Amino acid sequence: MYPGPVHCQGSDSPPAAAAYAWSCTHDDGTPVRWASTTIRVWTSGLTAIQSRALQDAQQQWSRYSGIAVAPAASDGAAQVVVTEVPTLDAAPSLGPGIIEYALTSNQWSGGYYTHSSIQAANLPSLGYDDWLDTFLHELGHVSGLAHVDSPTEIMRPVVGAPQSTYGSGDVAGLASEGPR
Q1: How far apart are CA 42 and CA 69, in angstroms?
Q2: Dihedral sign from CA coordinates of 10, 15, 17, 21
Q3: Which of 32, 136, 157, 163 would staple 24 via disulfide (CB 3.0–4.6 Å)?
Q4: What whole-number distance in Å separates Cα of residue 144 and Cα of residue 7?
C-alpha cells in the first residue's frame, strides 16, 4: 500500500486558504493519486452541451494532470463514470440559495484512487460555459483536489461567473497529484 492509510476531509470541511489542497492524503501528507496514467471514462445520459463541455474539460485536465482519457467499453470497465441524473436531492446542503450542479465521489484501494463517479444534474438552463466550469471542477475532484477559498480557482466551492480554464493554483495542484 502506497504509502500508508488514507485520510480524507469531510464534505463539510471549510475551503483551504492555500492555492490548492488535497481531499485525501496518506499519513506522510502525500496526496492519494491514480496509479494509472490513462483513465477509462464512461458517460451516460449527457446532453450534447454537457458532452462537448466534458470533452473540452477532459483535454485541459489531461494537459495539467498528466492523465490521459480513453473511452471505456462499458460502465463496468470504466474508472470514471459520468452520468446525468434528474436531481441531486441526495447531495449535502451547500447553504441557502446555492444550487448543486454536480457531485463527485472517489473510491480508493491500496492507497490509490480506483474509481470516481460524477453525477451531473439535469439543469437545461445551464449553457456550455457553466458546464465547462462544472466539469473542470469535478475533474479536479477526480484528481483529488479539494475546495479552496480563492475565487480565481476552478476549485472554489461556489460557482460565480463561469471560468473556462484552470487557475494557477489548480494547475499546480493537478501537476502535483499526477500519477507517479
Answers
A1: 10
A2: positive
A3: 32
A4: 12
Pairing between β-strand 24-26 and β-strand 6-8 as defined by DSSP bridges: antiparallel
Average pLDDT (42-63) is: 95
The cell for 127 is: 449553457
| Cβ neighbour number for residue 147 with a 10 Å cutoff | 21
Torsion of CA 93, 90, 149, 114, to 10 degrees: 160
Query: Dihedral, CA atoms, 89, 112, 10, 68, nearest 10 degrees?
Result: -50
Dist CA 133 CA 54 (whole Å): 9
Closest CA to 113 of 175, 40, 53: 40
Per-residue confidence (pLDDT) for residue 119, from 0 to 100: 87
Span 69-128, pLDDT tens digits: 999 999 999 999 999 887 655 444 444 444 456 778 899 998 899 999 998 887 777 889
| Cβ-Cβ contacts under 8 Å for 102 (sequence gap 6 or more) | 88, 118, 119, 120, 121, 134, 135, 137, 138
Q: Which domains does the chain have, with CATH numbers?
A: 37-176 (3.40.390.10)
CB-based contact 104:21 (threshold 8 Å): no
Q: Is the pTM of the predicted complex or chain greater than 0.85?
A: yes
